[in-house]
Structures are given as structure tokens and as C-alpha cells.
Amino acid sequence: MDLCFLRYSNSNIFSSLSQMPALVMLNTQSITVDVQYNQFVVDSIYNAANLSASAPSGEKKFAAKNVTYTWLQSIYVLVQCTPDLSKYDFNRCLNLTLSYLPFCCNNTIGGRVIFPSCNLRFENSSITTKLPSWQCHHHHYPSQMFPSLHLQAQ
Question: pTM for this one?
């Protein structure tokens, strides 16, 4: 489970959709080819995205869902975007992450697509069991806690 997401840049990153660099990971366990399963995963991600996108402006844009595929198999889905994105950019970002799935994650039991502005994840085991709840904490730290790094050319 990813407990932290840190982003920094030498340019303004707020309220702007960023999809590069992209990180794509897949669970190496595969399943037999199942077109219905692949479509179910995509539909589940879209449903979670719609739930998350409905959050008011400035609120966390996050959804985690457990959906049942068969009586023996569940799929756990997590979608998340930075709260500064507009609803339009949020949907656009998640659609871009979804466009990576056919190339990386068809017929696998899990995968992740991570952009600087949003990410999605699906697995066949619980994504959120390691934490009792998801909470987002915003802290302002004094600049003295993070001293500037001064490098000298040699």
C-alpha cells in the first residue's frame, strides 16, 4: 500500500493536469483471458472515479471500492486525484490512466497507473486493509524544518 504521495517541481503544479512521468505496474499473476473480467475492472474503476469526482472543489478526490465479480472473487479499486484539479481535469486524468490499462493490465489480477496528478489501482486482494481508515492530513511546516541544500561545484 502506498502511504504517501510526494510531488515537487520547479514550476507551478497547482490546478494543472500532469500525466508525465507515468508509472505503470502490473501484478505478475495473470488470469485466463476473460473479456468480461477486463470490462468489469474498467467499469468498476469508472464507478469509483464518478464517486470520487463528485467531491466538492478542494476536497479530497478519492474513492476505494470493493466490488464482487463472482461469489469467489472480489476486485478492489482505488482512484485518486490531487484535490486542486477541476472536475473536468479529474475526469480527463482518470480517462488517460484508463487508456493505459489495455497495454499493461489486461488479464492480470492487478495493476497501477500513476500520474503526477492522479492514479488508479486495482487488485484481487484488499488495498486498504493495512490502515484502519484513509485520512488526509494537511500540515504547514516551518521552512527551518527543510533547510535549503547548497551544492558547490568542484
Answer: 0.66
